[in-house]
Specification:
By secondary structure, the protein is α+β, with helices and mostly antiparallel strands. The chain has one domain: Aminopeptidase (3-Layer(aba) Sandwich), CATH 3.40.630. Helices cover about 25% and strands about 25% of the residues. Strands 1, 2, 5, 6 and 7 form a five-stranded antiparallel sheet that branches. It has a three-stranded antiparallel sheet with strand order 8-10-9, with helices on one face. The chain has a two-stranded antiparallel ribbon with strand order 3-4. A hairpin with a 5-residue loop joins strand 3 and strand 4. It binds coenzyme A. Coenzyme A (COA) binds next to strand 7, helix 4 and helix 5.
């Protein structure tokens, strides 16, 4: 399984998943799927390019109540295992682990219904964490709903520690949420080995 950068050649599988009823945003449901399909129909290349936005150049982000909020730097990768399995996304504020109130966590993911319960999300999060460490963050926050048992297991299997129960902002329906922290020290990419210096030859 790999985390694949969005590309035009793999886009038809993603569009197919959207048509089959998968939504990339479970808080916005079907509306998010319809919106993505419409964007793909209008400008496929633009849609693919918009998924990687490290400078937060894109338009404001849509929230579940229909309001919008400023975008953070971030990117989405497609979870690929011979076929499209879902996505995992990462967004962050450079230089801090803090997030604005409208961004519930650093990482979001969704697996297409027909690939669930195979360990896909657990492995995808494991693959994502070293790349979060590469951005210089000591830890990330991941939030989920108390009733989302599968997502809680995904986070816990990746070292997530429950730090608080909280109430989501009004734009998210003031629903209860769980905030986990995942320390990235053990996920830091291994340093590149230095080339061994040849011992000086004896004269
Ligand atoms: C949450 C989600 C990403 C999990 O994806 P997945 O690939 O099926 O997860 P995994 O196969 O890695 O399973 C993780 C764990 O959850 C368990 N699990 C999976 N589905 C479950 C379910 N419906 N009920 C209870 N447990 C479940 C698995 O048994 C596994 O437990 P284990 O580690 O103890 O064996 C997927 O259900 C999904 O896309 N849901 C909709 C979007 C969403 O909720 N995203 C998370 C937002 S925070």
């Amino acid at each position: 399984m790999e985390l694949s950068w969005p590309s035009l050649d793999r886009l038809p599988d993603v569009a197919d998943a959207l048509r089959r009823g998968w939504t990339p945003d479970h808080t916005r449901g079907e509306a998010a799927a319809r919106e993505a399909l419409a964007r793909i129909g209008r400008d496929a290349a633009g849609y693919v390019a918009s998924l990687v936005d490290r400078e937060a150049k894109g338009p404001p982000v849509g929230l579940p109540d229909g309001t919008t909020a400023p975008r953070l730097p971030g990117y989405v990768r497609w979870i690929w295992d011979g076929a499209f399995c879902g996505f995992i996304g990462f967004r962050w504020q450079p230089g801090t682990t803090e997030l604005p109130p409208h961004v519930l966590g650093h990482i979001g993911y969704s697996v297409v219904p027909w690939q669930r319960c195979r360990g896909v999300a657990t492995r995808a999060l494991r693959l994502q964490l070293p790349d979060c460490a590469r951005e210089g963050l000591p830890h990330v926050f991941v939030t989920t709903d108390p009733g989302n048992v599968a997502s809680r297991r995904v986070i816990e299997r990746n070292g997530g520690v429950l730090v608080e129960r909280f109430v989501k902002p009004v734009a998210f329906g003031s629903a209860p949420g769980l905030r986990y922290r995942i320390d990235l020290a053990e996920h830091s990419p291994a340093p590149t080995p230095r080339t061994a210096t040849k011992p000086a030859r004896a004269a």
